[in-house]
Amino acid sequence: MSFFNADNADNADNADNADNADNADNADNADNADNADGTRHAGSRASTLLSTALSRARDSIIGMEAIEGKIGEVPNLSKQERFARLTSGHRRSVMASELLNDLRFTTGREGKNTTPHTSTLYCATQCEKDGNNLTVNYARLVGLHRPSNEDFVRDLAMIANYAELRGERLPEVHTQLNDVLSFFGSISYMHPKRAGATLDLLRTGLYLASTVAMEMKLTLGCPRPAALSDKLQPMIQTPDHGAFPSGHATQAFVTATLLSELECGDTPLKAINADSQYFRMAARIAANRTVAGVHYTADSAAGAVLGITLGQYLAARARKGDQNVTPRSFGGEKYNDNGAPRDFHFGEVAKLMSGDDPSVEVIDPVKVRPAPILRAIWTGATKEQALKWS
């Protein structure tokens, strides 16, 4: 799920990468392929022919004249204004720095020689400088507790039942290997020329979701379904990393949450409407990974809790005024139906967010630090939302 793959010219391996959602999440990827690293010229993309032509043209018009420089009036641009002038790939690098500087992970084990069973993400709430020292206070943002391997074995029957949908869902499953944004773009108008800031915001969410989910996957080390049974036979290549949480679910739900929050502007979303088109789509994208045979339903539930919390965290850091976010913890070992496998769909999302689900612990809200660059993107995106039907 590399956030920077759009800048990678050698992208052949990524077609087989089941969690490479960031690449085609670029709605205007055709432009980015030329322009991500600044190699596009005024009229065409870079090439040896163009470079040779430019060199010969310069030689002919400069002649033997001496090179003299002059300094013009230097504009006093803010950091946000400089950011807006960068290519998409470089903007993402800046966003990576601003967001990841405020996040830290911890792990929990049940024994000295066991795989960690808990991964917890903390966010900075306050930063103070005292001379040469910097003091940062952190608060828990979201924690995941993995199911046991026995829980995974129990849930194999649910995955086998979902296999009946593979023929029907094949186009979605394959498209979503590399593209989830298009499915949300069919709900909310997102033409690249009319929704550039909105797409920047959503790609920022996809990047954060990808990074956090991958760290938790590596920490928790949960086996994929194919490792537990040779009769599931996934319809796509099983990825090379762990199952829990689902990266696709995390990305889908962070996108649904950001779009929902964006429609509220600087007023926080009061409650998650799991029946909205955004969250219905997110739940379907997550479920498609179970249909494909590469995820358990608990993976999707964990991804939903993680993605929604991260989406609300980004919105809190971006908006003006209320910068509070509600932390949550998800207990994968508690995600069952009275000891039987528990399904995952948009109705289950409503239960997870209700505050009464036994698998989700809701923690007192914390106030997060503002993110100036993210706020600039948010401001542009809210303006686009207001004008999208103009």
How are helices and strands ordered from N to C?
HHHHHEEEHHHHHHHHHEEHEEH
Share of residues in strands: 5-15%
C-alpha Rg (nearest Å): 23 Å
Total of DSSP H or I helical runs spanning 4+ residues: 16
Structural class: alpha+beta
Quick structural overview:
The chain is α+β, with helices and mostly antiparallel strands. It is built from 16 helices and seven strands.
3D architecture notes:
- By secondary structure, the chain is α+β, with helices and mostly antiparallel strands.
- 46% of the residues lie in helices and 11% in strands.
- The chain has helices at 21-24, 29-35, 48-62, 79-84, 88-100, 149-154, 156-162, 166-175, 181-185, 196-220, 225-228, 247-262, 277-292, 297-318, 346-352, 372-387, and strands at 103-108, 118-130, 133-145, 324-325, 328-331, 360-362, 366-367.
- The strands form two sheets. It has a five-stranded mixed beta sheet with strand order 1-2-3-5-6, with helices on one face. The protein has a two-stranded antiparallel ribbon with strand order 4-7.
- Strand 2 (118-130) and strand 3 (133-145) form a beta hairpin.
- Helix 8 (166-175) crosses helix 13 and helix 10 (196-220) packs across helix 16 (372-387).
- The longest helix has 25 residues, at 196-220.
- Residues 1-36 have low confidence and may be disordered.
